[in-house]
Amino acid sequence: MTVEAYNPGLRELWDSVVDSSRNGTFLLRRGYMDYHADRFADRSLLVRDGHGAVAALFAAADGPGADPGTITAHPGLTYGGLVLPPATCGGDALEILEAVAGYWRGQGRRRMVYRAIPHIYHRMPAEDDIYALFRLGARMTECSLSSAYEAPADPPRNQNTRRNIARGQRNGIVAAPSDSLDAFHAMLARNLDERHGAMPVHSADELRLLASRFPENIRLWTATGPDGTMLAGTLLFVTDTCAHAQYIASTPEGRELRAPAVLFDTVMEHYRPLRRYFDFGTSCEDHGRYLNAGLVRQKCGFGARGIAYTTYELEL
Questions:
Q1: In DSSP terms, which residues pair with 139 in a beta bridge?
Q2: Cα–Cα distance between 40 and 76 in angstroms, integer?
Q3: Confidence (pLDDT) at 153
Q4: If you ran DSSP here, which 8-state letter would residue 34 be given?
Q5: Residue 71 above 90 pLDDT?
Q6: Whole-number mean pLDDT of the chain?
Q7: What strand order describes the sheet that includes 45-48?
């Protein structure tokens, strides 16, 4: 295996490998990875086999103020690491990751942080990298619990969730796709500030840019009251296998009127025949050390169950 650094001249090749891979998603296409190039120094690699064919991509970067001895796959994305073509299998991933580790050692790196792609995003099974990390002595340093349900089975909503949906419908709540990104972002920012003293990872301008680049993948759904006021919303990141709720927000009035329940009932029914999974996202803070049990119960009420988002650390 040979390793080469990514450069913009390889963009078309990179994207074609992502699109045909077992586990690549639109987040790993260059149009998404490069939108925050001003904040993250790209350190991605291509790994080629003895015939020159791409055996894997390695999505990685350095973030602002990053430890110069650490390489992270990927600090600006939910996940990163190896993107594996269908022909790469089994022990190939071990050889690939050994080559990648050797490359980074040669660059003076001492540590690799690896954020694995959860299996719900895999077109084909692609956990070869997890085995390779184990073989190389990596340790899990973070595990966050997400909640997803597998379609097309009818999600087993519990009695309380069904009651909330019915109440919201009686209150005249209606959910539908929306283009009101600015209004949603403002509602989201208020939610995060009030509850966590935080701001959204993406600015409104960034969301508009990404939505324009990936109109089929980034979709906003909102729930409105009888007067048309936005009361709840979710920004979905839709991959080939999964509709993922990247952001969720609601107003106090919307929660009182049960707008979130109607919103997710509608969205889940829409995507149930279209995608294998619906993922509500993680319910953890402090790198997985704190679990919001109440939030998990709400998601379980819609039939969602646990999915692990894992991070590993490998000493080089």
A1: 313
A2: 7
A3: 73
A4: G
A5: yes
A6: 95
A7: 2-5, 45-48, 54-59, 81-83
The per-residue pLDDT for range 50-66, each reduced to its tens digit, is: 999 999 999 999 988 89
Backbone angles phi, psi at 140, to 5 degrees: -75, 125
Rounded CA-CA distance 274/240 in Å is 9
State in Å, rounded, how far the first CA of the chain is from the last one: 18
Is residue 196 pLDDT above 80, yes or no? no
Using a pLDDT cut of 70, give the percent of the chain over it: 100
How many other CB atoms sit within 10 Å of the CB of residue 271? 20
The CA-CA-CA angle for residues 178, 183, 184, to 5°, reads: 65
Q: CA–CA separation, 7 vs 73, rounded Å?
A: 17
Residue-level pLDDT at 194: 84
DSSP E strands in 123-255: the ranges are: 139-150, 174-178, 218-224, 230-238, 242-250
Handedness of CA 26, 31, 35, 36 (dihedral sign): positive
Rounded to an integer, what distance in angstroms lies between the CA atom of residue 265 and that of residue 230? 17
Q: 243: which strand partners?
A: 238, 278
For residue 266, count CB atoms less than 10 angstroms from its CB and return exposed for 0-12, middle for 13-18, buried for 19 or more: buried
Whole-number Å distance between alpha carbons of 146 and 275: 17
Q: Which residue type is seen at 109?
A: R
